[in-house]
Amino acid sequence: MGSGSKLLGRAGRGCNALGLGVRSAVPVLWGLAWIAMLSCSCAALTSRPASPTPVATVVGGKAFAIYLTAENIPPERLAMLSHLELADEPLLTLDEIVAYNQARHEIELTDAGYERVFALSVPTRGTSFVVCAHGRPVYAGAFWAAYSSQSFDGVVIDPLLATAERPVIRIQLGYPSVAFFQGEDPRADARVLAVLQQAGKLR
User: Fold this and answer.
1) 84 and 7, same structural domain?
2) What HEC string does 31-67 produce?
3) 50 Cα distance to chain centroid
4) Is the pTM of this model over 0.90?
5) pLDDT tens by residue, 124-166
6) Alpha helices in the chain (DSSP H)
7) Which is it for strands 136-143 and 152-157: parallel, antiparallel or unpaired?
8) 3-state helix, strand, coil in the chain (%, to 5)
9) What is the span of the domain harbouring residue 16?
10) Whether 171 contacts 187, CB under 8 Å
11) Based on the domain organization, do 187 and 134 belong to the same domain?
12) What is the torsional sign of CA 24, 29, 30, 32?
C-alpha cells in the first residue's frame, strides 16, 4: 500500500473513531473550514475604525502650523482618506500667533495672521485644514463660516468671529453646535500644547 493509502487509512480510522466515514467527513471538514474563514472576515470588519484619522505628508520644521489642503479636499471626505497632501506654505504659524487660550482653545492673531484668515473664501461646505506640530499632522478640521446652512461633525473654526478690533479665532467642536460633533476632542493634544508652551504662547 502506498503512502497516500496509508494516510487515507489513518484519516479513515480517525473519522471512524468519531462515528464518521471518510466520505461523510470530507463535507464536514469543508464546512468547518468555511466557518473559520467567515469568523476571520467578521473579526476584521468589526475591528476596522469607523472614522480613520487621515495622515498628512510631513512638512518642513515648523513647530506649530495650520495648513490648508493642497487640493482643497472637501471636509466631508477627511475621515475617508488615508493620506492628505498639504499646501506648500502654512496658513498660520507661531509667527502669526500672539497667544493660545488653552481653556477656550482661542487663538489671538497678529495683524498679519488676521489678514490671512480674513482673506479666506470659505464655501458653505467648509474649507479643510490640518493642525501640525513639528511638521507632523495632529488633527484635521474645517474653516466653517456662520452663513452656512450645512452641518459638520468635526473640528471647526469660524473665520467670521475674528475682527480687526478683536483678531481671535476659536477652534470649536461641530457646527452649528457641539451637539453635532462626533468622535474624541483632539484639541488638547499634548504635542500641540507642548509646542505652544515652549514658545511662550500658551495662556
Assistant:
1) no
2) HHHHHHHHHHHHHHHHCCCCCCCCEECCCCCCCEEEE
3) 10
4) no
5) 999 999 999 998 999 999 999 999 999 999 999 999 999 999 9
6) 3-17, 22-46, 111-118, 190-198
7) parallel
8) 35, 25, 40
9) 3-46
10) yes
11) yes
12) positive
